[in-house]
Design a protein that fits this description.
Distance between the termini: 55 Å
Number of strands: 0
Largest sheet: none
Number of helices: 9
Radius of gyration: 18 Å
Strand content: under 5%
Order of helices and strands: HHHHHHHHH
Structural class: mainly alpha
Oligomer: single chain
Shape: globular
Length: about 210
């Protein structure tokens, strides 16, 4: 009887894990696939999260900071806070090989630049990262309301989905949001990207 109860508990745990995974955007068709995909992303994050890059070109960085600071002013009033935040975005976007303007657009949609935001399903911080990833990669003490930590997790998760979708940004964003197969969330990010953060054609395929 105890063996049966233990088996039932394991089944329930697998089902709960599959439901939780829907939040960061994994398309699940079976328990085995869910476990495999979760393990793959966990392995990617375990390697990527401890890394951080700095600005490679000081002049280009300063031009970018000045431009983006003006665009960010409606969301973050304090000039010093804007520059600190933008340096973090630039650094973590570069570390994940993402356009920093895309990251800004995603943050605008996810949290409107509130580093303490918590969603109804428990996603935390600027890029609305699910906290279970901390345990998955062996970093349970990480604070997802810390700006730099949240940016690093969020940027690396998006890059993972972008690789998984072979560079198709709309599908990668839908996975990030948990709405794979729908376009409403990518469209929101694209509109923010075009409307506030980037001038000119967006540099990805899979954009509406």
């Amino acid at each position: 009887m105890n063996v049966c109860r233990a088996k039932r508990r394991r089944c329930v745990a697998l089902l709960l894990g599959a439901l939780i995974l829907a939040a960061p955007g994994l398309a699940l068709t079976s328990g085995d696939k869910a476990a495999s995909e979760r393990a793959a992303l966990a392995a990617y994050l375990k390697d990527a999260v401890p890394r951080a890059d700095n600005f490679q070109d000081r002049f280009d960085a300063e031009v970018w900071l000045l431009d983006m600071s003006g665009r960010l002013k409606p969301f973050i009033k304090d000039p010093a806070a804007r520059l600190t935040f933008l340096r973090g975005v630039h650094r973590e976007a570069a570390a994940a090989d993402l356009p920093p303007e895309l990251v800004l657009a995603l943050i605008q949609i996810e949290s409107r630049f509130d580093q303490y935001a918590i969603s109804r399903v428990g996603a935390q911080g600027l890029m609305q990262v699910m906290p279970f990833w901390k345990n998955e990669i062996g970093r349970p003490d990480d604070n997802l309301t810390n700006m730099d930590t949240n940016l690093r997790y969020g940027c690396q998760i998006l890059q993972y989905y972008l690789q998984r979708e072979k560079g198709h940004l709309s599908r990668a964003l839908a996975r990030y949001n948990g709405s794979l197969g729908k376009t409403w969330y990518p469209d929101l990010v694209f509109r923010a990207w075009r409307g506030r953060w980037y001038d000119g054609p967006l540099p990805y395929h899979g954009i509406h």
